[in-house]
Amino acid sequence: MINLLPPEIKNNYKYARRNTRLRLWVVICLMTLVGLGGLTTYGLLRLHQSTTDYQQQISMTKQLFKKESFAGTQKQVQDISDSLKLAVMVLSKEVLFSELIKQIGASMPNDANLTGLNINQVQGGLSITADATDYKTASQVEVNLSDPANKIFSSADLESITCQSTGTANKAYPCVVIIRALFAQNNPFLFINGKGPS
Predict the structure, then answer these.
(1) Cα 146 to Cα 51: distance, rounded to the nearest angstrom
(2) Which residues of the chain register pLDDT less than 50?
(3) pTM score, two decimals?
(4) Where are the alpha helices (DSSP H) in the chain?
(5) Torsion sign over Cα 64, 69, 73, 74
């Protein structure tokens, strides 16, 4: 088809079509900007509402803590914790004497008798008194008690050996030995290490 319109009219039609397309793009851009503005406004309103809700929850929680006396409860829990620590500390120093005496008795050499146990002022130790038939047996008591295989004492120090002459002594065990001993760290005869009486 041959277009016989003058060139000015042809240009007018061409620019009219372009103007129509441009108006369509301007309307689409404006609608997009309005949509983005609406979304931004909605997001800001939701953010403000969430902030307000969280502030209300925080104030309610603070009031609840005050009402329920959180500080008082925390102090009670701390007191209970301190009492438990004290109980564990006391029990860790408790000695199961029934088991300890059996083990010490088993460590005594022949011709020696255990006659006394005294708790020392020094923490974690005791004084052991034993009777023996002679000086050699009395010194063997200290050697046997300081043996690490017994798992009783970390050290056993000889304090004294006193032997009476057989003529003046009326008893079968004329020698008395006194030993100062310190409990071993992993002594199974302490209440905590031994897990209590069985």
Answers:
(1) 72
(2) 122, 191-198
(3) 0.47
(4) 7-68, 70-93, 97-107, 135-145
(5) positive
Sheet strand arrangement including 175-183: 112-119, 125-132, 175-183, 153-163
Burial degree of 14 (CB within 10 A; 0-12, 13-18, 19+): exposed
* Residue 186 buriedness (CB in 10 A; 0-12 / 13-18 / 19+): exposed
Q: What is the pLDDT of residue 190?
A: 61
Q: Which amino acid is at 79?
A: D
What is the dotted CATH code of the domain comprising 95-183? 3.30.1360.100
Segment (H or E) for 117: strand 112-119
Tokens describing residue 167 = 């003529």
Is the CB of residue 116 less than 8 Å from the CB of residue 159? Answer: no
Q: State the Cα–Cα distance between residues 142 and 102, nearest whole angstrom.
A: 17
Q: What residues does each domain of the chain span?
A: 95-183
In whole angstroms, give the CA distance from residue 193 to residue 82: 21
